[in-house]
Every structure is written in C-alpha cells, then in structure tokens.
C-alpha cells in the first residue's frame, strides 16, 4: 500500500499543505538524500577510486508554478511561506514526498531568491508568468 497522502509539501509548523493546484506537476524535480562528496581521487597504481563523503545527506527539490497566477493566487502562496518561516533568513521546515524512498520526510530548507515575471496587469490585478520554486535542505 502506498504511503502517499495526496500532497507533495506540507509545513510542519502549521500543518498547512502547499496547494498542488499551483504546481505544474511535470516540472517537479527532487533529489532526495543526495550524497555530497568532499573529495574523490584515484590511486596512482591500482586506479581504484576513493571517495570521501560528508556526513548526513541533504535533499533538494524544485518546481515551477502554473502560468497565469494572479494576485489572489500569489497571496495564498505568500501566506504559506509567511506563516511557516522559522527565522528572518527564510528557513522553513517542510514535510516533503521523497520520490526515491516513497515516504514522507521532514527537513529544514531555505529558498533561494525568487524572480517574478509579470505577463500583464489591469488597474486591480497582476497576472504572472510561471514562478520557479527551489528548496535546499540546510
């Protein structure tokens, strides 16, 4: 039986789920529990490869929003982050779907700076192009 509960991201602070309707699903990319190699070298005589890895494994994931978000949509997304960030550096603790292990995991992530592209605007609304979200585990 699957462990999937119908969401990709949930903030552990409030239990709020990131609305999947805003995710362009074919853009979801995850690299769960990746190994970070500090150095690697080959023995001169045997040519055997030796790798030195950092302790612990970190996850990253990214996705693009659907195009055409308006100000109301942006307010929902902004509230998700504003209500759940744990410090002034923008860290957020998330429960996320681990595509490698097929389970949910929890980690503290930071989000690199975002870029906002406006497609059009009216006197009372703005329409955005797709937004790129990226999360890197601390």
Descriptive labels:
single chain; 138 residues; mainly beta; 6-stranded antiparallel beta sheet; 3-stranded antiparallel beta sheet; 1 helix; elongated
Task: Give a quick precis of the structure.
By secondary structure, the protein is mainly beta.
Account of the protein in words:
The protein has 138 residues and is mostly beta strands. Helices cover 9% and strands 41% of the residues. The chain is built from one helix and eleven strands, in the order ββββββαβββββ. The chain has one helix spanning 71-82, and strands at 9-11, 29-34, 37-42, 49-53, 58-64, 69-70, 92-98, 103-110, 118-121, 126-128, 132-137. The strands form three sheets. The protein has a six-stranded antiparallel β-sheet with strand order 1-7-8-11-5-2, with no helix packed on it. A three-stranded antiparallel β-sheet has the order 6-10-9. Strands 3-4 form a two-stranded antiparallel ribbon. A hairpin with a 6-residue loop joins β3 and β4 (49-53). It starts with 8 loop residues before the first strand and ends with a strand.
Distance N terminus to C terminus?
A: 31 Å
Uncertain ranges: none
Strands side by side in the biggest sheet: 1-7-8-11-5-2
**Rg calculated over all Cα atoms:** 19 Å
Structural class: mainly beta
**Main sheet specs:** 6 strands, antiparallel
Number of helices: 1
Fraction in helix: under 10%
Indicate the overall shape.
elongated
Multimer state: single chain
DSSP strand tally: 11
Report the portion of residues in β strands.
Answer: 35-45%
């Amino acid at each position: 039986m699957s462990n999937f509960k119908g969401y990709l991201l949930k903030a552990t602070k409030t239990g709020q789920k990131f609305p999947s309707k805003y995710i362009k699903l074919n853009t979801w990319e995850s690299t769960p529990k990746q190994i970070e190699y500090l150095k690697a070298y080959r023995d001169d005589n045997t040519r055997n490869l030796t790798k030195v890895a950092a302790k612990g494994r970190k996850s990253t994931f990214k996705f693009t929003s659907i195009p055409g978000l308006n100000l109301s949509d942006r307010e929902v997304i902004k509230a998700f982050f504003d209500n759940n960030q744990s410090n002034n550096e923008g860290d957020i603790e998330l429960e996320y779907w681990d595509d490698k292990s097929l389970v949910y995991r929890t980690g503290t992530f930071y989000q690199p700076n975002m870029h906002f592209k406006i497609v059009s605007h009216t006197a009372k609304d703005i329409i955005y192009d797709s937004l790129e979200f990226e999360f890197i585990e601390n």
